[in-house]
Amino acid sequence: MTREIPERTPFATIDDMPPPMRAMIFAALDRMAADPQMRRVRAVAQRALDPRPGQRVLDAGCGLGEVARDLAAAVAPGGEAVGVDASAVAIATATERAGDVPVTYAVGDLLSLDFQDQTFDGVRAERVLQHIGEPDAAVAELVRVTRSGGRVCLVDTDWLSLASDGLPEDLVSRMWREATGARQHNPTMGRTLRRRLVRAGLVDVVCEPVPLWFTDPDEASTVIPLFNRSIPREAGFVPDELWDPWWAAVDQATAAGELLAFVTIWVAAGVRP
Ligand SMILES: C[S@@+](CC[C@H](N)C(=O)[O-])C[C@H]1O[C@@H](n2cnc3c(N)ncnc32)[C@H](O)[C@@H]1O
């Protein structure tokens, strides 16, 4: 499969986007945070990270910051939750939303975190590594800022696990081939998380695939952009020549009650020795 990976993927360049596009991305992150299936993913990740009162924890690539706020509650009293993201606009939004929640947000790069070695008891990164060109360097940086005995938890999508039923096979295989992967540096990131933690020297590494499935295209659109009709045609998520047949097929499968779309998100965690 040949595909062109942009030098910097859209999620690495949120601040450079036209404001309407950025608003769309933020709305998508908010919908995702509220989605029951994503909540299952985050519950698995929370158990794997296992934050305790009094601990210092980091959500790296925190987006709009809601997980860091949950972490603040989990480490209270006496703990400290920090969220870092490359997007200054996301960090400003997270800070505004925090209100009285004792959480700190800062602009920062996963590849060069502005923290001393072994600062945190727990470090997590959710759906960030797929957008980074040097994921192992990012993992090494997450490990660097985790204390000995502390936990690193990674969450990421495996876009090549994306599959469906109820849609024409030939159309689906063209869509998947042309559309999946073109928006990430690492479309199979989810399945590689365990190996990356092992190679980074972590011990007691565990992993868990969380399957997400949808029978309604609007619900699917929360996690799978190919089902998101509000993304304009010119954004290119659905290849232009497949736009009409794709939406006709989705409508037909939905009307027949036959649509099924599924994708796997992986959670992996380990302990820094
Ligand atoms: C798909 S969003 C996920 C946000 C959040 N973790 C969540 O699960 O809702 C990817 C986030 O990673 C951030 N990001 C991308 N590259 C980054 C980097 N090198 N350092 C820090 N954050 C980065 C983006 O700004 C964006 O907020």
TrEMBL record:
Top-rank taxon: Bacteria
| Database matches in InterPro entries | Methyltransf_11, SAM-dependent_MTases_sf
What sequence ranges are listed for the domain Methyltransferase type?
A: 58-153
GO MF, one example: S-adenosylmethionine-dependent methyltransferase activity
Read off the Pfam families from this record.
Methyltransf_11
State what protein this is by name. Methyltransferase type 11 domain-containing protein
